[in-house]
Design brief:
With 407 residues, the chain is α+β, with helices and mostly antiparallel strands. The chain contains 11 helices and 15 strands.
């Protein structure tokens, strides 16, 4: 339990330690997880909002992770912790075993209260009663079902050793760390809910531009840094089923053919300023990740230009920029949902309440670290929560219903 007095409010999160306190203990732990160095990449761009990158040469997936924040300390600890999270998500490098079962065994572990489709398989995948599914044990912590079974594909990233049916692809949705277990759970759950909102946004964008008149000083400073650099910045609020603050932020270059003509980020949190800071910082981080070239999986612009041709690419970027800047129905920042959460525990209860209102009543938590590890890393899985992206087209019952009703 983390009380209000023990909770530290950072610019983009609620923590049990300050960023500086976490930084005092993390370097040695990171080295043991294969992190060779963490570097300040802020100077590679002209904005000045801090972004750090961590390098893990022996990674099974990404060798470069990033951290963002309003302050250098927040960005630096973020880079360290994301690398540690990814290292624990790798199969064979955590405290969690797997085994093969039938789909019915998974449903039985949830006392037949869920449908298998709620794990949201990819569109072209099917599951049959006699299939073998690799699973891990998890604790169901919302409805208090105790131990349940969840697909190991949703726990490990990557899971190349998987001998069972492959249904979900590789994803890190719900992978999170914290100074303690509750803190890690809050961050993992908020990410799952953020991805759920974003999935519905993809099939029907209902976002509205946020006016600047009532932005907080911190947010105004971030806007100013971006615009002084000769870039345009837009913050859009997305009304959502959870009734909480979800923002999409965009940083635009004046040149439509610039490889980073549009950089975007998202943020979801009970506290609206935290959600907005996260969205803006992630958009800046997205630019820098493309600039330093450490993640070639994000370098799509050049390929698209080659596929479409210069003029078609220019037209597509202009259309998207117009959508981002659309000022129809501008909303004031003060009218966006904002919850007073005095502690990390209160934040968790707030998220639980929002899930229940949407009919999502199960939260499975897999703890990837040993109990005595100084930080805790978890994977959070919410049956029924959507995780659709253009790259990994996973669809569950709620999104299918929205498709059919054009919600």
């Amino acid at each position: 339990m983390t009380t209000a007095a023990e909770t530290k409010r950072l610019s983009s999160s609620l923590r049990a330690r300050t960023a500086e306190e976490s930084l005092s203990i993390v370097p040695q732990l990171a080295r043991a997880r294969g992190v060779s160095r963490v570097v300040d990449t802020t100077w590679l761009d002209r904005i000045g909002i801090p972004v750090f990158a961590s390098i893990r040469p022996d990674a099974q997936s990404l060798c470069v992770n990033a951290g963002k924040g309003f302050t250098p300390a927040e960005a630096k600890i973020g880079a360290y912790m994301e690398a540690i999270e990814f290292s624990f998500a790798e199969e064979g490098r955590n405290a969690v075993p797997w085994r093969l079962v039938k789909p019915g065994d998974i449903l039985d572990s949830f006392q037949a209260r869920i449908a298998f489709t709620e794990f949201c398989a990819q569109l072209d995948k099917e599951v049959h009663d006699d299939d073998d599914i690799a699973v891990c044990r998890a604790d169901e912590i919302l409805s208090q079902l105790g131990e349940v079974l969840v697909p190991a594909e949703l726990v490990y990233a990557p899971f190349e050793a998987n001998p069972g049916v492959r249904l979900y692809g590789c994803s890190t949705n719900g992978l999170a760390s914290g100074n303690n277990l509750i803190e890690a759970t809050v961050h993992g759950l908020a990410e799952v809910m953020e991805r759920d909102v974003h999935a519905f946004q993809i099939i029907g964008d209902k976002s509205v531009l946020v006016g600047r008149e009532e932005l907080t000083p911190k947010l105004l400073e971030m806007f100013e840094r971006i615009e002084v650099a000769g870039l345009s910045c837009y913050l859009r609020y997305v009304p959502n089923r959870f009734g909480m603050a979800f923002f999409s932020a965009y940083v635009l270059e004046p040149d439509e053919l610039n490889p980073i003509a549009i950089a975007g980020g998202h943020g979801f949190h009970p506290v609206r300023e935290i959600a907005a800071v996260r969205a803006l910082a992630e958009a800046v981080q997205s630019r820098l990740t493309n600039i330093h070239g450490g993640r070639d999986d994000l370098m799509r612009h050049v390929k698209l230009e080659g596929d479409l041709g210069v003029e078609a690419m220019r037209a597509a970027v202009r259309e998207r920029q117009a959508q981002v800047a659309d000022a129809t129905g501008v909303v004031n920042f003060s009218s966006i949902p904002d919850v007073d959460v005095p502690s990390i525990d209160a934040a968790l209860e707030c998220l639980y309440g929002a899930l229940r209102k949407e009919g999502l009543v199960h939260v499975a938590r897999v703890v990837l670290t040993e109990p005595d590890y100084p930080f805790q890393v978890v994977r959070i899985i919410v049956p029924g929560a959507e995780s659709f992206t253009h790259g990994s087209q996973r669809v569950g019952p709620r999104l299918l219903e929205a498709f059919s009703t054009h919600e």
